[in-house]
Every structure is written in structure tokens, then in C-alpha cells.
Amino acid sequence: MSRALEVVATGPLALVQDLGRPGHAHLGVPPSGALDVPALRLANRLVGNPEGAAGIEALLGGLTVTARASCTVAVTGPPVAVAVDGRPAGSHVPVHLAAGQTLTIGRPDTGLRCYLAVSGGIDVEPELGSRSRDVLSEIGPPPLEPGDVLPLGAPSGIPDGADTVTAPPNPPALVVPVVLGPRDDWFGDAAHQLSVPWTVTSESNRVGLRLDGPALRRTGAREGEELPSEGVITGAIQVPPNGLPVVFLADHPTTGGYPVIAVVVPRALPALAQARPGTTIRFRPYA
Questions:
Q1: Cis peptide before 253 (omega within 30 of 0)
Q2: Which of 24, 100, 16 lies closest to 253 in space, CA to CA?
Q3: What SS3 class is residue 202?
Q4: Half-sphere exposure of 49 (CA within 13 A, CB side)
């Protein structure tokens, strides 16, 4: 029997993701890849894969898969119930599936995105060097649907539980370090304006985290001024005309015509990837 996983149920959204396809911004292609990179890296280590192997990113859990061959799996991200044929199996640990066994991921109480790694990795055809789905430019394998059969690569390592951890719950409030600029001079006292509490809205997705709060105000000299499109990176905090910031995540556009007031320090991005609507965020200048 060939090594493969069959998708039984997907939950709200399940995507194949690896560490992305950086280096193609000049083609208008975002970096994409897992939003919570440490979670995918850990899952791959637990099943003996290279850290960049492709796995499944499941939004709010709900993923069910059946193994068509013997394999080792691991689920990481927020704490979540995991079951094999209805029996509890645990998250953040390597779990063996025999051919025909079914794994189910529940709905996490906190956080947004769970990651499933499988020994050998998801071996779908890469595009531009990555197996990641980019929801903005629609590059990579389409969102998973029940009945999909995902080929698996050959196992290349030994499952390793040495760094198994219990994931802490995702907090209802985050303090996020940022580097001001490059367009902070468009806003009066940018650091102070950014420091107020912001609330993650339900319009957020893999492209960007949309925030609600007191609208950021431009300096009088910049009122109504247009900005030529310029390159933007993951973590850029762009301010559209309504003054409500958007934090660009991995599937962001590669250029933008609105001023970027600050950029999130990369180590803070995984927490933002798990921030549910209603989460409070405070930005602090990075020192």
C-alpha cells in the first residue's frame, strides 16, 4: 500500500504548509508558509522529519485523517484534544498510526492554528520551491477537502520526543515588540499612538491581522497625501485611510501604497498567528 493520508474532515480550513517560498517578492509572490513556524518545526522534529517538511495547518482544529500506511504523526500549536480511533492520544507527542487508523484533532480552547506533521512529510508537487498554499495569489495546493488523498514521502529520520512540550494557552492579551518606521514620520507621536490597546477583528486571515481601536492620525502635513507603492515585508503594520492598522502576515501583498508605521519583530509573529478575534494587542517599541 502506498504511503498516503486520506482527508476525512477539514474543519473550517486546512492547508498544506511548509516554511514557505521566500525570495520571490520581485514576482509579486508572498513568502507564505506556516504562520506559527515554531509549531511546524516542532511537529516535524517529533516525527523525525527535517524541520521544513510540509504538514497541515488546521484552522480551529476539526481535522480528521486516515492513514493508508503505517506512519508517525504529531500535532502541535495550541493545546488541543487528539484522538486515534476515538481514543485519546495527546498533542505535542509522537503518535503511531497503523494503516487504517483515523486521527482526529478537536477544537482548541485557545489559539487558532494546529499543525499536523507526518513522517516523510506531505509530498504534494511543489510550486516555486514550496508546497505551501498562498491564499492571496492562490499558488500551491488548494485548500483540503474530504476525500483528498495526500501522498507521503519516505521517512528520513527517527521520531524524537526529547523536546516534547506542553503548549501554554494563548493569552487574551499580547504585548508585541515593534521597530518604528519606515513611515512613522507620517504620524504624530507614532509610538504613543500605537501603544493603545488594539483588538483583533474577525476580518483577519493569513494575509493580515486587522485591528480595531482609535484611528491613527496623520500629521497635518501628510493629510490626504498619496504614497507611491513600495515593498512591504511580513510583520509590516500598514495604516489605510481609515487609520485602523493591518499587520501583514505570511500571505501579504509584496507592495503597498499606504504608509507602514512600524514592523513587528519576527519573534513575535507566531503569537500573532494564534491571536483569535477579540484578543487585545499592545505594541511596544523594541529596544
A1: no
A2: 24
A3: coil
A4: 29
Could you tell me the three cell numbers for 85? Answer: 480511533
Question: How confident is the model over 44-65, as pLDDT tens digits?
Answer: 999 999 999 999 999 999 999 9
Residue identified by cell 486520506 is 6
Q: Is the pTM of this model over 0.90?
A: yes
Query: Confidence band (pLDDT; 50, 70, 90) for 222?
Result: confident
Query: Which parts of the chain are beta strand (E)?
Result: 4-10, 13-17, 55-59, 63-67, 71-76, 82-84, 87-88, 95-97, 102-105, 113-118, 149-151, 173-180, 198-200, 208-212, 230-231, 236-238, 246-248, 255-256, 260-264, 280-285
Query: What is the separation of C-alpha 11 from the centre of its chain, rounded to a whole number of angstroms?
Result: 16
Cell of 45: 522534529
CA distances from 128 to 22, 53, 178, 206 (A): 9, 15, 30, 19
3-state secondary structure of 187: strand
Distance CA 281, CA 91 (A): 27
Spatial separation of the C-alpha atoms in residues 276 and 282, rounded to whole Å: 15
Please choose, from the candidates 9, 155, 147, the residue with its C-alpha nearest in 3D space to the C-alpha of residue 94: 155
Closest CA to 243 of 205, 278, 194, 204: 194
The residues with which 55 forms a beta bridge, in sequence order, are: 17
How far, in Å, CA of 191 to CA of 213, rounded? 15
